[in-house]
């Protein structure tokens, strides 16, 4: 999907919500465990119920890899279902990959070609040649970890090298890489106050902002510092939406949570437009 398509979907739906599909069999309604593929059944119901409020879905691959081959099959069925039923929706494989170039090119093929995701999250630690193989794919997006939502982000990402924080080096240096137009960045919602600095370096890049909901980040703060005239934000919530209920009404309850966020997003967008 092109960036222009994503922006037009955001404007049409008045939403920049990304729903995180982080499925844990211990947290889903127990009656689903009798289904042949409980993870896919859960995802399908959640997607169908929430798609009117969301522009993106982000399965975190850890939650699928944890169940071995069966989990990977559920991931494949989920991305196929999204691509076939809701082709206008942006898909993110949250896999946090990155390795020497030869290996990164295999990761890129796995997520972009074999599974058909629009984007994948990538760690910048191994540098340019570990990221460029992902960037080589046209109309596919590489979402580079810049300033993450967790406490450990302060261990390295905010430390200074040559008087500047590491996350700023990541933003600046990555802009010079081949096909940098295919880059997006992860900035945690729990660090919204940093977004003003981030926007000085990457004024127009899309930012994936996880950390509202269960991690307590504020949507208003994220928008205040991170939103551009074309919005250029995808705000993710996983547990706060998908585990709203463990009963028969789990999908409706998830839709209710997604709607609350979308209504807040619409109000913000109406305020700026
Ligand atoms: O790359 C990510 O999506 C990510 C980066 C980050 O800095 N913080 C973060 O929470 N995430 C992911 O975003 C999701 C957040 O889930 P909830 O806390 O349940 O909303 C999880 O899949 C995390 O792995």
UniProtKB/TrEMBL annotation:
Its EC number is 4.1.1.23. The active site is at 96 (proton donor). It is an enzyme of class 4 (lyase). GO terms for biological process: 'de novo' pyrimidine nucleobase biosynthetic process; 'de novo' UMP biosynthetic process. Pathway: Pyrimidine metabolism; UMP biosynthesis via de novo pathway; UMP from orotate: step 2/2. It comes from the Bacteria. It catalyses: orotidine 5'-phosphate + H(+) = UMP + CO2. GO terms for molecular function: orotidine-5'-phosphate decarboxylase activity. Keywords: Decarboxylase, Lyase, Pyrimidine biosynthesis. Gene3D superfamilies: Aldolase class I. Residues 16-254 form the Orotidine 5'-phosphate decarboxylase domain. Belongs to the OMP decarboxylase family. Type 2 subfamily. PANTHER family: OROTIDINE 5'-PHOSPHATE DECARBOXYLASE. This is Orotidine 5'-phosphate decarboxylase.
């Amino acid at each position: 999907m092109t960036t222009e398509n994503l922006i037009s979907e955001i404007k049409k739906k008045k939403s920049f919500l990304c729903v995180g599909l982080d499925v844990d069999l211990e947290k889903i309604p127990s009656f689903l465990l009798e289904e042949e593929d409980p993870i896919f059944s859960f995802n399908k119901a959640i997607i169908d119920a929430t798609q009117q409020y969301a522009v993106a879905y982000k399965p975190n691959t850890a939650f699928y890899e944890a169940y071995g081959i069966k989990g990977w099959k559920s991931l494949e069925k989920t991305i196929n279902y999204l691509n076939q039923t809701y082709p206008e929706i942006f898909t993110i494989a949250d896999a946090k990959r990155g390795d020497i170039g030869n290996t990164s090119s295999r990761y890129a093929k796995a997520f972009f070609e074999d599974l058909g995701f629009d984007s994948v999250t990538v760690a910048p630690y191994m540098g340019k040649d570990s990221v460029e193989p992902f960037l080589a794919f046209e109309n596919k997006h590489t979402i580079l970890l810049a300033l993450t939502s967790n406490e450990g982000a302060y261990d390295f990402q905010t430390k200074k090298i040559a008087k500047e924080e590491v996350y700023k080096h990541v933003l600046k240096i990555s802009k010079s890489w081949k096909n940098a137009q295919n880059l997006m960045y992860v900035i945690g919602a729990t660090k919204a106050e940093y977004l003003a600095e981030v926007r000085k370096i990457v004024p127009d890049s899309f930012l994936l902002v996880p950390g509202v909901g269960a991690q307590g980040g504020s949507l208003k703060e994220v928008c205040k510092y991170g939103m551009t005239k074309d919005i250029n934000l995808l705000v993710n919530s996983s547990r706060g939406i998908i585990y709203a209920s463990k009963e028969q009404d789990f999908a409706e309850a998830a839709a209710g949570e997604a709607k609350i966020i979308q209504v807040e997003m619409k109000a913000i967008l109406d305020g700026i437009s």
